[in-house]
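Obj.: predict assembly geometry.
Materials: sequence records (below).
Method: joint structure prediction, all chains together.
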Amino acid sequence: MYRTVILAAAGAALLSGCLGGGSSPATMDPPKNVVFFLGDGMGITTLTAARIYKVGEDGELTIDTLPETGFVKTFSNNAQVTDSAPSMSAYMTGVKMDNEVISMSTETVAFDANGNDYLSGADSTCPASNGKAVATLLEIAKAAGLGTGAVTTTRLTHATPAATYAHICHRDGENNIAAQAVPGGAGYNNALADGVDVLMGGGRRHFVPKATSGSKRSDARDLVAEMRAAGYTYASNKSEMDAVDTKSAKKLLGLYTMDHMSYDLDRDPAVEPSLAEMTGKAIDVLKNNNKGFFLMVEGGRIDHALHSTNARRALQDTVAFDTAIKTAIDKLQAIDPGLKNTLIVVTADHDHTLVLNGYAQRTGPTTASNPGVLGLVKNFVTGALNTDTGGNPFTVIGFGNGENRPAARTALTDAQVFDKDYHQEAVIPMPVGGETHGGTDVFIGAIGKGAENFTGIIENIQVFSLVRKAIGL
Amino acid sequence: MKLIRTLAATAFAAAFASPALAAGEAKNVIFFLGDGMGPTTVTAARIYKYGESGKLNMEALTRTARIRTASLDAQTTDSAPSMAAYMTGVKMNNEVLSMSSNTKAYDATAKPYVSGADTTCPANNGTPATTLLELAKAAGKGVGAVTTTRITHATPAATFSHICHRDGENDIAAQVVPGSARFNAALGSGVDVLLGGGRRHFLPSGVAGSKRTDAVDLTALLTNAGYTYVTTGTALRNVNVATTNKLVGLFNADHLNYELDRVKGAIDEPSLADMTETAVKLLQKNSKGYFLMVEGGRIDHALHGTNAKRALEDAIAFDEAIKRALSLVDLKDTLVVVTADHDHTMTFNGYPHRGNPILGKVTDIKQTRVQGKPVLANAADSKPYTTLVFGNGGGPRKASRDDLTTVDTAADDYLQDVGVVLGTPGSETHGGGDVMLLSGGAGNAGFKGTLDNTKVFGVVRTALGL
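Observations (raw structure tokens):
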């Protein structure tokens, strides 16, 4: 009996497969959706720490509920430890490239023979003969008629979002990256056709003319005005975003800050939308496309807080990223129950050097009165502070390198290390904000259509094909 | 029509090839445990041996999960409750081996229940929790435990013994010996293969190096119980598997040597791969199948010593044991699992160029290309730094770091820099980060997503149909 049912189901699948094969042009394929979540610098220990921070050792973040797990090797074409440009580009294009390079062919170089970056301020000086553009998942989706979007908490022109829609030999040419997103303007990336449908984040400084206070542009172009002229609805704060009618707005540009958006811990919720709110708005706009959509969402400042060895802001931004994932899953389950035609991927572009020292008693979640994983290591038998050979307590969270490497360790208190501006100690001293990325494999999780293929230890460039295959792009 | 029939057959096969969890799919299980082998150690070991784009043998196991390792009382687990979680499905306190959750390792005054290597666990302190090895034995399967540590150390002990504090190793030894007063009756006729170190807990107190406090010779009892007993790599090679039913190999009074020292010193101890091969071949004689645990136990010890080189050498030896096992088994009826019990605090600094030795100093990518040779990067103190460092450890840690410019950081005995000094070398702690689990073969469909370590037990048990 079981056998019969299975064969009948297989037959039905074949039948629908034949119809979908083109013999009947009237047949509508269901919309296919991809949401690609990128936690910048969100390595495996950061994920563990964020879980403990928010829900305790036994709790579950949304990330922890994803049914599939793989691990990703992150090295770039020229570096054992990658930066965000080639790592995100590897996911978006399937091509391995040098550090600093965004969605270009492998031979592209970011600096000249003398080691001078192809940059002048935020303007690119990439020579024309230096590599060629390689197609991104977003461009491929656009060409197939899907809606497209990129949402981030960093400047919209920063490496991760840029890798979805721009091509450049050095990531810091952010004025050019901005221009590549403006339909019809000089320097436009024609592979975006009528333009990316939803773009949200920070980074107005690369879109407004140089006369405007805070602008980093070196010309008089007003890219915001150009995009409005090209049909974009523009939002510059939370209330303007909320006011956008997602039924009628065909294209949405949100630039909420001049520079990066605020860390979630510092964000004024009345002025800047959360990553979850931006994600929800983006989906509401993109779901109007009856072929589906490709949306990239970055939790971009996890990385920045880690560079500062400021674990508290890093963990809070990781939790904000996790909340955005929940928003997306909930919305897409409503649009496409069971996620039969929707793939949601969650990964990081690289690790950092964050470590979790032992042997800590269970801390439970961080609350107003309990530093939790942000606190000092306490003995799991007695609850007393564990100390180093000098009798000084130490924090659960440490870093391999970073700005706080005291010559002599001191008697830290929980109150001190729980402060939102505390920078955890590091093994190797670095300049302020100079903690480096780490070279360790990162986590990739997935749910929905084709998720089961996100397993094993894979290279970052393989992710591109897995996404394409999952939704038949 | 033929095409349609083929496709239908394929769909049919697919429907049965990937059930959620088919009970009893696996006849055999090999459970590989890399002690302390966190994600950074996996990545570093890969680069050390095969380069950035190379593959470890364990990467052939493509069904993966992320494992949470917290114990009942600690955010940072030790090997006892973490391996016990895998083996029993029960969450327990640090130091406790395969006992119920209410078991305490310390008394009310925070004194551990141990005296030397003898247990002082009171009688009413928890109850044993059944292990996968015991379940397999009860089902008539062959069972074995192989390690590079003392066979009485926490990880192997979690497969065959039950005790409130892991350091009672004399008692753990007695639990595995049929005919001893403390024999663990749940082991039936005894564990079929036991290979590792730790003779000191089996030999009577009069023998040099013994840690026992009594005159019992557990090796004699094992021989009486029908075990073939070997103490060298040569003797292990000469074991006739066809005529051997039970095998115990204790190749060192203490732990086995690190792989680096074993090879360099031509020490007559078996490699982990050779021990694994003998164990698999012996257990394959059981027509009902087998459960084998293989531990790369000294990865952890070298990491405690912030001696990355020995840790990576031992991680590679562990990976070689996996390769050997995969060459001997049929994944159609055998489940192979590879995981770690916990992380360490080793981390991987940026940004060396691709191809830089993993044990070396961080290079400047740009200057390395411009000058056509490796150029070191400097930290904020204008001194070079190694790629691998540790969050804490034995030190030394100086107010002003040593200049490493002319230091060979790839030397056998080089100890990486640490952030917090906790004592002498060896005192680096475990880390609390999640670890990787890789699996292949029969019944591995349940290894996916993010799992608490206690859930691993259920997936293996179901795979075996026990």
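Conclusions so far: The two ends of chain B are 43 Å apart (CA to CA).
To do: check interface contacts against the pulldown list.
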